[in-house]
Here is the input.
Amino acid sequence: MPKRIVFFFIGFVVLASLAYYGFNRWKDSREKVDLWAMVPESAAFVVETNNHTALVEHLKETSLQESFSALSAYQRFEENMVYLDSVSPGSQRRERFLDKKNILTSIHVIGKTNVEFVHYIPVNSVGEHRFFRNLVDNINKSNIFEQESRQYQDVLLTDVTNTRLGTRFTYFTYHNNIILSQSPVLIEEIVRRIGRGKPVSIAAGFKSTNYLTQPEVYANVFINYRALPDVLGLFLSEDLMPQVRYLSSLSSSAMLELKLEKDKIFLNGFSEPENLKNSFHNNIAPVKPRALGVKNYLPNRTAMLMHFGLEEVAKLKIQPNRKEAAGSAYGATLDSLALAFNNELALAYMESSSINASPEKVVFAHTENPDLVRRLLEKLNKQVLASRKKKPYTEKYGSYTIQMIEVPDLPAKLFGSLFAGFEQSYIVQIDGYTVFSDEVATLRDLLDDISADNVWGKSVAQKAFLEETLQEGNFSLYLNTVNAWYVLSRYMTENSREDLLQNSTLIKRFNQVSFQFSNAGKQYYTSFVFRKQDSGAISGEDAFATELTIPFESRISSRPFAIQNAVDRSREVVVQDSSNVLINILATGKRGWVDTVGSTIRGSIKQVELGADNKLRYLFATANRIHAINNQGQNLENFPFNIGDTLNIQHLAVFDYEKNQDYRLLVDDYLGNLYMYDIRGNAIDGWQPRRMDYRLATEPQHVRVSGRDVILVLLENGYVYALNPRGEVYPGFPMNLRSPLTSGAFVKAGADLRKTEVTVVTKYGSVTTFNLQGKLITREQLVRPSKSAFFDLEAEGNNGKSFVIVRQEQGKVAVFDQDLNLQFEKRYVTSAPKIVQYFHFGGDNKLYVITETGPQKTYLYTSKGKLVGNSTLENSKPVIVYRNEASNDYTLYKVFRNELQKISFRLVN
Here is the structure.
């Protein structure tokens, strides 16, 4: 009896122990786990979703899925998923298993070279447990996968290898959750994190924030700004990383909502300030955000803009070494100048035309007291030049005065290291903004853009974008990925540049990007916008739409000449018929003024502002005369100029040295003689005539460098002259290129003659770059397939800020970019020389127009060499092309026989 009691007691204890163990195991499996607490602190981003199906469907509806599917990483992921679907049990596929549950994905940088992902997936029901168990069994049975299990700190890890793709992932289960990643290192880190007991969530500061409860929100996105530099460091060159680390220290972390619209991605939420010593946040201590007032002065060709909205912009500069400042002859003036700026500070990078070209940089500093800034700049300049016994450099450009201050890195001394890289500073004051650049040509181009309203504040496309961004901010970064393409390529690491090219479709599609932070008390309201500029698409037979056809009584003998209306600056056209009558066609398509000139026009029609009303006047040359007419077709006083009855003029060049309407008119004849006059008809000394040894290859070109005016004259025999306004040759010239020239030069103006570069290409393909001291910089020979091949340099047809090189040979035309890379090559019917035109309207909006004069056919090509509309136009002369930015379509004017046609089309790259 006692033995039986002992036996039953032992049995009861064993059963109770088993029941208790089973209960605890069941309880543990049912215990809710905070997935956020499992995420390692090394995560740079964490994305939380709760409706997988809705997200995928919305991506398809908005065409974003098509964009993402072009990414190689996405394609590899989908390949893996296809194989997993092939072994999934029953009809319950991946979408059903993933739908309607909160799933986390964390993104990490591993080993400073790779980006890896971790997925945290709950298993919520008995059916899902059964699905997952059957999936694991099927994977184990499949000949597609290999599966191995191992113990790591008492946790069972399973490694699965796809034998077809060679890919691998590791997973484990924890309290009804699956944690998997392609990185076993991250999986092991998570196991260690769990083993330490009750880890703190990486997003603990946003515990009460859940945007997924709101309509039209597809994800919570957590950003760890402390890890962000590690992500960007994978792509950007080390030179940029100090600035990236500093800017990232504005905030420590953020939780943002993800919203998707057609061709738009929005991320909005709040960021926690970074309170570490010397952080960006602690230095600027922002109070009130500011509006983007500088938009009215930013050119449309801006590639990237950093904008700081601060009451005292001098706070951007970390406090200087006082002993060093005290020892400077002008340290006190610099301090006073820095404190004179307020509310807005911006650093803009202009669009670059080549990966090898340093992008132009412009600094805009706002002041409420322009007169004080002017006086301080004058004082600083006197202090700088006092010991050097030099006179200050200034130049007039229209109504503006540009001055140079020879203080290395002046913007950095005023505003901090983010503004470094200015060897010298050229400065101009525009309303309440003081503008800095290290190249005077950059400021001239900027002033031209402002004068022509080619600025963000006047741009329909840019205004539409800015309306969707924060209207006020403390720090904003704006990026146009298309305009910034060469800038991005230049500052990418070698390894990431290939990825950039492979993902160019998606990157360029979302070409308007903004990142903004606006003070909202103890946090920053944060907004990220990725937007595709509105555009349409026309293809096939409807690619070209004829908007206007104007017949003339006589055959049209000239190309169409582009002009602007003298009153409202609308786009107009002038043609010349076989009776040598000039006919003006208004923007409405009606006829305007006419002028009988008695001879064919030589060169092009120039437009200049003349008189107190600053109205446009039209200058052009015929065989032996220079003409100037008003918007009624009437001759201006003293015109036309009779140059000489025996002359045969080739070109007319018009120079306005200081943009003050003191024009110089320069013509050359077929013998190589140059004649120059002022606007009143007075002959200029040294030019009556200035005899050259040979006929000119192209129209003379003017460039102003550090107060010097240089006139470049290229001769057909390969000699290049650099002349001053008196016709005298600059030292180092003429240069003998030892090969004929048939096209003009591309000039990149620098701070002085030594730094100003001129690029030419000879008829036989030698690409030569030299400076205005006559020193050779580079010389490269392009491939010349045969002796019949010849080359030309074609400057961009709108503003001449870029160029391409064209090779023609036996009916084939090849186009090379500025880095001498072949863009495309086409074969045509005849071997006669083709008319090649190149238009660049910013970013990828490039158009190549190639005309065969024999068959009288014109072909239009996109930046990728794709034929526009898969058709040709009847034409035998150069064309005019305009772009309508608002509708993103194009207008082309061409002449054929006795008709002028206006044709509209769109580019589909």
Q: What stands out?
A: The chain has 20 helices and 54 strands. Residues 33-202 form one domain.
